[in-house]
Amino acid sequence: MKIKANMKLSVIGALIVASFMNTITCESNEPSNLRLAATLYLLGVNTETAGPSAPDLRSAATFASFGGGAGITNQGTITSITGDMGTTGASTMITGFHNLTCGYTETPLNIGAVSGTIYTNVPSPAGVTCTEGTAATFEAATTTAADALAAFNDLASRPNGMDPGAGQLGGLTLIPGVYKSAAGPFLITGSDLTLDAQGNADAVWIFQMASALTVGAPAAPRSVILVNGAQAKNVYWQVGSAATINGAGGGTMVGTIIASAGITFSTAGNLTPTTLNGRALGLFASVTMVNTIINSSGVPAAVQPATAPVSGVTVTGSTSADVVGVVSGGGYINVENNGGHVAATETGTGTINIVNNGGVLTATNTGNGVMTIHSNATGAVTVTNTGNGNVTVNATGAAAIALTHTGDDDYIYP
């Protein structure tokens, strides 16, 4: 952080500030932004600053997730990754994912869509046109591992880090700068953390910790909130051991997390998605996801879609209305129907998730996306798959299912 010394601060002014700080300390046991502000004023810190410079991620910049040599696993059917993914391990260490051309050990309960390339060592995974899992993708993954480690060391070396909340960042509003946990870990558990750019879109935050990063309490997710021009792409977390992000499910984390050990999102069985607008880069251990959404650009895909015409459709049906969703790009369809008919069509590369508690359901998949259907209704279910995507149908209703499959991939019923 850039510091501007104020050598003309009067003794009286210093005493006033010191008295003010002492009053706040006595009245509250919680970390105080006012106390931090008073300290910065006393030291003459120029708070109108862009903070430190950002590290150079090099090849790691395109990655949404990297699992060192230990791989990446997914549980759940709504995981969505915008960006590249990789590990220096074998392709079999990536499980529960697919991209446009390759599939990585997906099951009906573990489906994750990846928009970019998946870089691994051999062997090549399943897929009619899959070109991954080769010597070339392994070489690229090795380069990314080295670049991520270099960025980690760069972040760790930044001087003059402050600990404004004794390791607890929840409830604070922080200006750009370098922040270092004196005790080792950083926590965002009591409440949300707010990052205030003060109108500077280039403002950078670096968080250094010798041990763990924990976001969210066991029963309550927490988020990092960006205000006054703050951007997720300018937030960096250098984690000395493991990172646990919202084990309760839900919440929105931001920034590039580079952890020496593993990174874990949510907990098995949680249906509420956990979001990271940034990157999850594990250096020497795996990344584990449960219904996780990662946007490597730092901007949610629904706001800045990879495919321009349509980024996604989310439809909720009433007790009588028909529900119709159509996506022809790389987006997604989420349908929850509690009454009327359902008609969903996917002609692109996205994902269809349908929960049908209503009437007749008709779903057509002519693209390369993945379709997952849960039908508890008594109406007829008709599914047609003429593309290269996967179709999974779990039906508990009374009516029979009519299913036509002419694509290249397997279907599973029920």
Notes on the structure:
- The protein is mostly beta strands and 414 residues long.
- It folds into two domains: 58-295, no CATH class; 313-405, no CATH class.
- It is 12% helix and 37% strand.
- The protein contains three helices and 33 strands.
- It has a 17-stranded parallel beta sheet that branches.
- A hairpin with a 4-residue loop joins β5 (97-98) and β6 (103-104).
- α1 packs antiparallel against α2.
- The radius of gyration is 24 Å and the shape is globular.
- It starts with 10 loop residues before the first helix and ends with a strand.
Keywords:
6-stranded parallel sheet, globular, PF11999 family protein, Ice-bd_prot, disordered N terminus, signal, mainly beta
A few lines on this structure:
This protein has 414 residues and is mainly beta.
Computed CA radius of gyration, to the nearest angstrom: 24 Å
Number of helices: 3
Helix/strand class:
mainly beta
Beta-strand residue fraction: 35-45%
The low-pLDDT segments are 1-48, 302-314
| Residue-averaged pLDDT | 78
State the shape: globular
Main β-sheet: number of strands, strand sense, barrel status? 17 strands, parallel
Number of domains: 2
- The helix content is 10-25%
